[in-house]
Amino acid sequence: MTGGTLFTDVRTICADNPATLSASTDVLVLGDRIAEIGASARGQATPDCFVFEGHGRHLLVPGLINAHFHSSTNHMKGALPSMPLEVFMLYESPADRSPVPSPRAAYVRTMLACIDMLRLGTTSVQDDAFFVPFPADEAIDAVMQAYADCGIRATVALDQPTLPESSKLPYLDEFPPALRPVLDTPAPVGEDQLLDTYQRMASRWHGADRGRLQIGMSVSAPQRVSLGYFHALDDLSRKLDVPLFVHVLETKAQRTLMTEQPRFAGESLVAYIDNNGLLTDRTNVIHAVWIDDGDLARIAATGSVVIHNPMSNLRLGSGIAPYRRMRNAGIPVALGLDEAICGDSNSMWEVIRTAGLIHNITGEDYSSWPSAEEILQSLWGSGARAMRRAGELGRLEVGCLADLAVLDLNSRAFTPLNSVCGQLVYCETGASVEMTMVAGRKVFERGRLTLVDEAGLLEEARERFSAGRDRGQPHEEPEADTVAAYRRIVSRAARADVGMNRWVGHL
Ligand SMILES: [Zn+2]
């Protein structure tokens, strides 16, 4: 084998015990894998190997894993004020029938986040892509092409609700009669057509570039699709051995669906999924803020992974997910950005810092607060498990995929070096990242992306997405009486007794 990369005199950390910083060592990458670690690495390097000299001051870590993301709003960071999810979505995904994004708009907006992620050492992303009003093949291909071109590892699913709005909300009596017909408007695309789209997407993209690109399955949320469609996607996910994304109990209003939507028959959405055999070790349970101990037991028993998105939960006021209870139940908890429109950055460093801090205000017993080590285990170990790549991603071991980030330990974040773990979680912003590698290929090095024209793409994004131009997304303001009705629903749900509280503090 020719080529490859030899990292000399680098420090490393172990994914299972990230608090332990190794002495200087050598790491050899051949092809898309880590071929050797330690004294024998130099001897196995080929003469044409690229050599990165660490001089004992560089830290080699597994690339960061963004386990939940929606690329669709990458061009809308900071665009909306903070609002509860149900109201927020009126602005984010209006129910009008505006044209689908042009393929080029879908490509450029996908690339915007890829630029951020690769610069900051994120090497894997799970994109639950949605398209307003529906996913056209050309737009899907454009998203996949962006991931193909920039070099990041991506699992991409289609987050498309198939039921009318009236199936997804509690307290429908809050809507004045004049608005009710809108709630019953069918989804813009049927389930059969979506399944055909998945099949086409799988045949074209699944496993591309030696498995760097994969497709996943997404039902968006249990209240947003039929059981038949959920089963069909679960079958596909089993067949392809890929994750199934499902947003579950993100908000308190969603918790009230168990009693306010007859089809859930008084059971929580987790129980509903589980009772239908749809909670498995392939299921990514996204958010899980308003879950109770019974839900936790079901998730733990089935081996599902929870994806925690603390910045999104803060931005939308969703509440604080019970991280400690999840961990105590033995549930793997991975971490995600959710989306730029409600996270406003594409930095997993901000996610891990937020995850490392937010749970400290849930009580005074500091033994229950997350440790920096736990947060890094969530980032890497649980992230890899969410992607169904445990054992080969998120680890720095011989045979694992060479998805890596190189950090400068002489940077301000690590000066002086007190605790590598603590400084990774609480101090690092991404400014220390000197190189990002995915599948053995350098994708960011010496301050520049190696595979894409970053300046050109940013210039195009400014031109394309400036106000009034091709936003690739409808942006009409919702009607005031519609917003008022949704506000009443959220407010009524907030007053309901659901047997738990996930909000803290007082006005
Ligand atoms: Zn999401």
Structure description:
The chain has an 8-stranded mixed beta sheet. The protein has 507 residues and is an alpha/beta fold. The protein has 19 helices and 18 strands. Strand 16 and strand 17 form a beta hairpin. The mean pLDDT is 95. The longest helix has 17 residues, at 103-119. The structure holds zinc ion (ZN).
Keywords:
507 residues; alpha/beta; 5-stranded parallel beta sheet; 19 helices
Summarize the structure in short:
35% of the residues lie in helices and 19% in strands. It is α/β, with parallel strands linked by helices and 507 residues long. The radius of gyration is 22 Å and the shape is globular.
Strand content range: 15-25%
The N- and C-terminal alpha carbons lie at a distance of: 63 Å
What is the residue-mean pLDDT, rounded to a whole number?
A: 95
- What characterizes the major β-sheet? 8 strands, mixed
Strand line-up of the largest beta sheet:
3-2-1-4-15-16-17-18
Q: Specify the oligomeric state.
A: single chain
**Unique bound compounds:** zinc ion
